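Hi D.,

Good news: the full-assembly prediction came through. Inputs first.
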Amino acid sequence: MSTTKHPSVLAQTVSTPVILIGGLALIAVLTWAFGSNIFGRTVTEMFIRVALVVGMFTFIGNSGVISFGHAGFMCIGAYGSAWLTIPPMMKKVLLPGLSPMLANAELTFFLSLIIASLFAGVIAFAVGLILMRLSGIASSIATFAMLAVINTIYSNWGPVTGGTSSVVGIPITTGVWISFGGAAAAVVIAYLYGISRSGLALRAGRDEAVAAAASGVDIYRERLIAFTISGALCGMAGVLYAHFLGVVNPDAFYLGVTFISLSMLVVGGMSSLSGAVIGVVLISAIIELLRKMEKGITVGEGTLSLPNGIQEIAIGVVMIVILMFRPGGLTGGAELSLTRTSANDGYSKKDQGSGNHPDNKPRR
Amino acid sequence: MTAVLQILFDALSVGSIYALGALGIALIFGVMRLVNFAHGDYIAFCVFAMLWPSLDVVAIVFIGNLPWFLLIPVILGIGAGLSIISEILVFRRLRDANPATMMITSFALGFVIHNVLLMFYSSRPKAINLWSNLSLPVEIMGARIPLLQVITIVMTIVILLALVTFLRRTQFGVEMRAAAEDFTMARMLGVKANRVIMAAFGVSGALASCIALILATQTGVADINMGLPVMLVAFVATVIGGLGSLHGAVIAGFLIGGVSVLLQVFLPLEARPFRDAFVYSAVIASLLWRPQGLFAPKSSKERV
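Then the structure:
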């Protein structure tokens, strides 16, 4: 990548994923050492969210295009793994419409994880071929339309997906460590993509579309690559989720999850990998804390508890307040890093409009 | 003939609701590039406002029992008020933020409103008996059409005409249209930003309450989630119509209503559950054909 005197991109930035994974590992170790069973489940769910939001970041953060569709890839991954791992006996009853090859398959979790994630990636590639031609708000709406299409299909294609009823019998394998592994893998892949030629070119296109195109960046192609990778990562998150709950249902992968994960991304700071991870960890922590307070905490002699329903209201208010005071998200687009030059590839603090930053041009 | 008429009325009445919703979203988008995801919750809030001040499980309609000439202005006022308050408290501070931040903030605001309603009224839908005699059918050229459908369509046309007059003939309206076209330029020419943005929020909120009145009469229930589907379609319609174009939003709203009614009628039976998949595929196709929207204003062209 670098033929100049500068240290390589890898050397400049590698501390970011190391710090992030280290932080997540610390949470995992603490949970393993001290946490209760229930707390373990909360942490597992958080790790799955990290994988999902980092997957979304791979596309949204690098391209600057908000996508409402990534929950769809999560859905595809989750159902893909359900098709591959539910025992054939159960599938005959639950999903009679499956093709014989799928109906007789009973793969191990890891094999299924890889295949189902790749499947989500392939679908993302196919959809991306069409959708990546669009940009800006038209692109966002098109991804939302895609999500609606996926949801309609999975909710109504009864013999293959079980319709709106839940598909049960998925082996439960996702625990704290496996979900941590998934989150860490997502961070590594997102990081490697971010410093790759394609990732840098895409970010150049995000900050200065015309200048980047004039310098030979094919924005359509780079977006398609990012969309495919992020689709596969979200698919992986879906697989982890399916094997965490043991049950899948199309509505689990619709608007609710779309909005909460987008919120986490934007609150963290949508143009940095650190922002994606921090957003998830922080909001999950606040939600958990409020949940605890709703149940009641002992203060001195009495218990203090919030009335039911306050938790959701409070989380909304917290998000609004954070965004009011830090419109660029908590990290403002900067990465956690050991070196001083944290905004090494031109992540702009202002998020928008400051396209004249000298570092924004793709380096060749 | 009667069947055609029936379909036409269905399409128009479904389209009216989408058109009103799209207009509400387009007005705000025009002046401050905000896609207001809280719009659906404004609708739900207005529906539940008819139950005030009772919080009982069995709905005791209080405001809803007012005679119509009082009820309509009260509900419109509540919608406009809620919308304006949210502008003052929340969105005013975010005017310079990027669109993603505003979008997520509006979503968070909607989430708060939703959960406030949930806390007071629980998630179980409640029966509202609002103007139930309106669902009696009337006969128009041989087709039996619920009176409400006719009223919905007529009301929508009246609202649209009133709005057109407002936008064309009044100072406010002209300012608002100028702002929607090119906000920076409008400000330079003396349009006051605060005033015009507040007016846009007010009108948008009032439109949300119109939808609330229609939906409550049509379905006879108050459900916390009732605004969401309308808001989503309206949002899509706004983009298809061309963001910033008010008449584009209205036409696209009617278009989506029409397409979904037609598909419902003409799709083969086994494909009918997948209707929404077809509708949204059409949306994607329309965006690919005209990424700037069907009726994009000139100002929406990107400049280098």
